[in-house]
Structures are given as C-alpha cells and as structure tokens.
Amino acid sequence: MPASTETGSPRPAAAKVGQRANAADRHVGARIRERRVMMGLSQQQLARMIGVTYQQAHKYERGLNRISAGRLFEIAQVLNVAVSWFFEGLNDEHEPSEISPRQRMCLELARNFALIDNEKHQEALSQMARALAAQSMAAHPDRELVVEAEERH
Predict the structure, then answer these.
(1) What's the rounded Cα separation, in Å, for the pair 115 and 45?
(2) How far, in Å, are 70, 108, 115 from residue 101 at the CA level?
(3) What is the CA 26 to chain-centroid distance, rounded?
(4) Which of left, alpha, beta for 95 (phi over 0: left; psi -120 to 50: alpha)?
C-alpha cells in the first residue's frame, strides 16, 4: 500500500523518489554495458571478473537489480574507470535513450580496434580514419570538428 499523508491521500513525492532511483539504476546499468562493449568484453566475461553469474550481470546492465557500492567499486576497477563515470549524464533532463545505430557502430569500432594486437596495423587504421575525416571536413566545412587530445601516446 502506498505511503499516505495525514489526510489519507497518496504521497506523489515518494513515487517520484522511487522512479528516480529506478532511472539511476538503469542509467548506471547502461553505462556498465557501454563500457563493457567498448572494452570488448562479453557479459559472461564481465560476470566472471566481478564474481557474479551471467544472469546477475545481465540484471545489473538492465537496471533490474541495484548494485551495491562495493560491487560498483569492483566493476569500476574491472572496467578501468572511476566510480563517478557510471553517473555521468544522470542529471540530464531527458531519459537515457536506446543506443543509436551510429553509437553502436562507434562502440563496435572501438572494441574491434582494441582487439588488434599489431600496433602498426592500429596506427595504419588510425591514419586512415584521420584522412577520411579530413576529407569529409574539407567537403563539409560547416561541420564542427571535435578533436580529443591523444591520451594514449
């Protein structure tokens, strides 16, 4: 039975708190999935690394089960990010949407790039991407180019 005020009417604030908690669980789960895919790990591999079943890892990613602080810390260590990374973007006003096909392609590209064990091949692919991006920018100078500093080198 929902909590009520002295007048007997339901407290809508309590429902909103629960909804925000569920949204937070879903957001954190989505961020875990995003990072796992980016690193090229399967749910099974992640589950093994954090000491839970595949089903539990799946429930974490879907936001169906809440993650304890200790478990989230373990996941952050395994995925090589700060715990705060999972909460980035949570305060945005809109509900996190499903991953777009373009985002999925970018994640797949990052995952596959990380799986290339030959540094010369990685560098060649990186140079090709730079050249294609430069060509696109020259053809469409009105597009904004976002360049991140090379942190890996």
Answers:
(1) 15
(2) 33, 10, 21
(3) 11
(4) beta
* pTM (2 d.p.): 0.56
Per-residue pLDDT of the chain (153 residues; tens, 9 = 90+): 544 444 454 544 444 545 555 888 999 999 999 999 888 888 999 999 999 999 999 999 999 999 999 999 999 999 999 999 999 888 865 555 567 788 888 888 888 888 889 999 999 998 998 899 888 888 877 765 433 333 333
Contact 50, 74 (CB under 8 A): yes
> Would you state the structure tokens that stand for residue 126, as one six-digit string?
């990186």
Residues 6+ apart with CB under 8 A from 71: 50, 52
